[in-house]
Amino acid sequence: MENFFHLKERGTTVRTEIMAGFTTFMAMAYILMVNAGMFSELGTVSYNAVYIATAISAVFGTVLIGMLANLPLAQASGMGLNAYFVYTVCFGLGLSYANALVLVLIDGLVFILLTVTGLRKKIFDAIPAPVRMAIPAGIGLFIAFLGLQNSGIVVNNEATLVGMASLNIYSGGVQWPTIMPMLVAFFAVLAIAAMSSRGVKGSILYGIVGGAVGYYALGFTIPGFYDGFAEKLSFNPFTAFGEFGTQAFGKVFTEGFNFTPFIEEHGMGAFVVMFITTALAFCMVDMFDTLGTLYGACARGNLLNEKGEVPNMDRAMLADAVATAAGAVCGTSTVTTFVESSAGVGEGGRTGLTALSTAFFFIVAMFLSPIAQLIPGCATAAALIYVGVLMMACVKEINWSSVEVAVPAFLTVAMMPFTYSISFGIAFGLISYTIIAVFSGKAKEVKPATWIIGILFALTFFLTH
Fold first, then answer.
1. Dihedral sign, CA of 233, 238, 243, 249?
2. Sign of torsion, CA 229 234 240 245?
3. Who contacts 154 (Cβ-Cβ below 8 Å, separation ≥6)?
4. From the centroid of its chain, how far is CA 384?
5. Are 416 and 142 a contacting pair, CB within 8 Å?
6. pLDDT truncated to tens, each residue of the chain (465 aa)?
7. What residues contact residue 414 under an 8 Å CB cut-off, 6+ apart?
8. Strands, DSSP E only, in 287-332?
9. Which ranges constitute the DSSP H helices of 41-96?
10. What is the DSSP string of 196-263?
11. Helix or strand (DSSP H, E) at 6
């Protein structure tokens, strides 16, 4: 173990690594419930099936990055990309669950190719810095918006398109059963924030569990809340594995490549443009998310080399890419390195043994799906809102005093939640950056690859939307 992980060289011990791995797991275990709840909205795949798919892909990716790159990081289905999968690709574009898995698989395969050939850096450099810096914040707002909707706090309003749900119980227009989940979500967010401010590890997971306890405790105040409740309970963990095998695993191959319904409705030309731009959006968000997380987590643990670079960077990126392809086969969205890995690094994790420890706890979690399924949507909504808060940190790096930086960055951030699409946010940022550069006499600064990507996105608007 010492020869493989170099524990002494990095100033750590087996005990420290295991505890760091558990801390990382506690910080990111919420993804099992959030991802399963989000995908179950599609109606074609169950909560249990996606729960197991998420856990298996997390184990695979985390073991891979620990063994290949010897880094104390963990992987799982990425927040933001899962929302893009469900709400933009499936609900927005009209693709099926299996169709969308094909795009995730292509993301993984392209990512593998780019990493092996070294083209990854060229594509990364083609995205203007203002857009690159703004992408996490835009995704954060989008995720928070989803959480506010799932909790019932933000509702559809015919006059203003969106509005706040009524809490006026005295007028008789709204009932306590409607208000209760909103309050649970709101106070769960505050509880997560309070725990985080006190340095509690796994505060998001605790917030979800606390929200669930509060939800069921308040259920006693609602007549009929528990009617038929026992009939829905199943404490056989292998039921989830069965649903995974029939509803999720391998669907990318058995059903995914049938795009006939989309082509019949929109035409082959629109399909080609949609396919390229959507796959590109998956790749870009995955790439930036992974690069940022790798650098941030390693910087926190003083793991950067003498050049200020992430050690074994290419191996870490390869692990991410292979895990994404494996995740598509399992039936979940893009697998990426989790920023919550920083929690384990903060606890002293310095080697891949931390990653293997995190993977072990994900294996244990696979057999807890009956308990996880009891988590209500208002509790996981709190996690979405709080993760959105965390992802806004990047805005402080944006030079808001420069118009040519501020406008593309703002459009990238704003258009994601306003259009309900991560890719549209990236598109508006890229296109606006290019146009501003042209009319301000800086057209030569726009890279050829930036032009190509921007044109592809523009074609998406005119041919597929």
1. positive
2. negative
3. 145, 148, 162, 163, 164, 165
4. 10
5. yes
6. 788 888 888 888 898 899 888 878 887 888 998 899 999 999 999 999 999 999 999 999 999 999 999 999 999 998 778 988 998 899 988 999 999 999 999 989 988 998 888 776 666 667 788 988 888 788 788 878 888 988 899 988 877 888 898 888 877 678 899 999 999 999 999 999 999 899 887 788 888 889 999 999 999 999 988 887 766 666 777 888 999 999 999 999 999 999 999 999 888 988 888 888 888 778 777 776 676 667 666 766 677 777 767 788 888 889 999 999 999 999 999 998 887 787 777 677 889 999 999 999 999 999 988 777 788 889 888 888 888 888 788 889 899 999 999 999 999 999 988 887 777 888 899 899 999 999 998 888 888 888 887 887 787 677 655
7. 138, 141, 425
8. none
9. 47-69, 81-83
10. HHTT-TTHHHHHHHHHHHHHHHHGGGSTTTTTTTGGG----THHHHHHHHHHTTTHHHHTTT--HHHH
11. none
Q: Which position has the token pair 């709840």?
A: 37
What's the CA gap between 23 and 356, in Å, rounded? 13
**Position of tokens 């927005």?**
92
The two tokens of residue 220 are 């006693």
Q: Which tokens belong to 156?
A: 């559809």
pTM higher than 0.85, yes or no? Answer: no
Distances (CA, A) of 431 to 93, 279, 438: 21, 18, 11
Scanning the structure block, which residue is given the tokens 């995205």? Answer: 127
Report the amino acid identity of residue 120. Answer: R
